[in-house]
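**Backbone description:**
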Amino acid sequence: MNAIILVIEDEKDIREFVSKLLIDQRHTVYTAAKGIEGLDMMEKVNPDLVILDLNLPDIDGESVCEQIKDSYPETQVIMLTARDTSRDQARGLNLGADDYMTKPFEPDILKARVNARLRSIDSNNEVLKVANLTLDPKTHEVKRGDREIELSPQEYKLLHYFMTNPNQVLTREMIIARIWESSPEIETRVVDVYVGYLRKKVDADESVKLLHSVRGFGYMLKEKEQAPALES
């Protein structure tokens, strides 16, 4: 996939090195040295992927990531930063980043991570449908019949995971591994909280409930209850 990639990095040498690396891979690359400049560039070029430094001179990269994911939830974000603690990594992923790399980095590893994120875009472009619930990955539009559903970035990622695995039991551990990248700071009860948020939005005032608890295991997105282990 030849992609549009935005590099938001204040260190000129690193910015130019990463840009050349990506251009050599036949990607179209735009750059920004500051957070505000990067957000402005987002509106102009609508990139497929952003490589984002956290230590920016004007606003923190974490704030930039949050704003990107709020406005462009389908844009892949790879954080590339000198912050190398597990707490930093967990926080970055919890803010919605799709990957996290620390400096110094191996160029081949960065290229591999970029390619992996771009493959995920290619494989997730079809409109998903379960009963009368639809999710369009291209537009981030979610509907239950004619009713539009507004979701946060994490709620969206969770629903997308359910809809790409309908009629399958997803354990809390599986959900944490996929949605929160097995962050050590995430407890299984967080999954219950987010499923609760989704239920209120997806199943609210609907006669047919789609999100079900599976006693002793986890959750399932299913149109009809058939097994006695299912709970509403």
User: Anything to note?
Assistant: The domain at 4-122 is CATH 3.40.50.2300 (Rossmann fold).
